[in-house]
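Why do we bother with a discrete structure alphabet at all? Because it lets us treat a fold like text: something you can write down, compare, and reason about line by line. To make this less abstract, here is a complete entry for non-specific serine/threonine protein kinase. Read it the way you would read a sentence in a foreign language you are learning: slowly, and without expecting to understand everything at once.
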Amino acid sequence: MPELEDDSGTLLPAMAANGVVPQENTLLGKYELGKMLGYGAFGKVYHARNVRTGQSVAIKAVSKQTVVKGDLAAQVKREISITRRLRHPHIVRLFEVLATKTKIYCVMELAKRGELFAKVSKGRFSEDLCRRFFQQLISAVGYCHSLGVFHRDLKPENLLLDENWNLKVTDFGLSAVKNQIRPDGLLHTLCGTPAYVAPEIIAKKGYDGAKVDIWSCGVILYVLNAGYLPFNDPNLMAMYRKIYKGEFRCPKWTSPELKRFLSRLLDPNPETRITIDEILNDPWFKKDYQKIKFEEEDFELKSHDDRDEFLNAFDIISFSSSFDLSGFFNKSDFSVEGERFVSAESPERIIERIVEVAKTEEGLTVTRKKDWGAKLEGQNGNFVVVIEIRRLTQKLVVVEIKRREIDDESSREFWKDKLRPLLSALMHQPEGQVTGS
């Protein structure tokens, strides 16, 4: 049974949702977790069921500790930020992101047939089936490129199949967006899987993100048709030399039209390599091709520092400096304690209640901060509390509290008997929560 934790770090109790009582392995009362499907780039992936609707989904569980230790916060945030905005029938959909004290849970569309890699490893595909999958792949990749998103790690392991044997691109952990392009108009980060990486990346020069994705698509098409890699050698440097020179041979069953098409996809010169538009007009590709329809939506990667931008679960567990309130304390306040909770009260009402209680304490001053925040201090400097509120959803907010360690008896009493109980009363209790002892 998967180990699930709530925000206090304890095992989740049973919770009720719309009259349905899930088992102990229910995540935040919403998803009942089943068997592990495999490992993603950052964590384990489980089959799960929406308790309310019965919909099957895949949930990737990412350990906060793993992310911090591996310095992967920016990478994970980028993957979430990009994937949750992509809307295409051949890209795995990210439905929502949930978080507990120790883990992040990405709730995604379930591709029931698993990895394309597992299928092709059992034997090559017919040319018609290769064409069908490649058409779906190019539709998804072309869509990403039109939005300025470059995957940079396309390979059969990152291509899934749904129940209707349709292809789904996943794992945008190494993806890049157009605002990462340097003034020379190119990307420079070295990344990708060796056997699928483009020659210009090996050369350690700047590269066009779209062109390296096309190269990887060419390697994928070759593998689907041949059942093995076009560039392969037990010696990594020898393999890189073959890639750099574009040295490969097609198996004897490959049609002349596909050979010619592969030579354009696997052109070692990115300047002359085929483009997405040219792919769409290629005779081999166009056979039986039906343009895939999808609803285009606005795609913009915004900063999460805007007050009007709702926090997502990733911000709650706070890898960013969104809740860095240290600037409100003096340098001598070296021992600062903090905590955070979710509330269904409005930010204005929370601040109003806190100010109301603070004013009952003689000598305690309240300084209102910009937007939704306040600083409480007094009692001869023995009491300092800073509160900041950020919106999570239309109905929920996150309240962050930082307080200097209290070494004065009257200050401790005020915190314990008045302010702390008030804050506890403001905490949001999920519907159906069964409280333990």
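What the structure line is telling us, in plain words: The CA atoms of residues 63 and 387 lie 28 Å apart. Residues 114-286 form a domain with the Transferase(Phosphotransferase); domain 1 fold (CATH 1.10.510.10).
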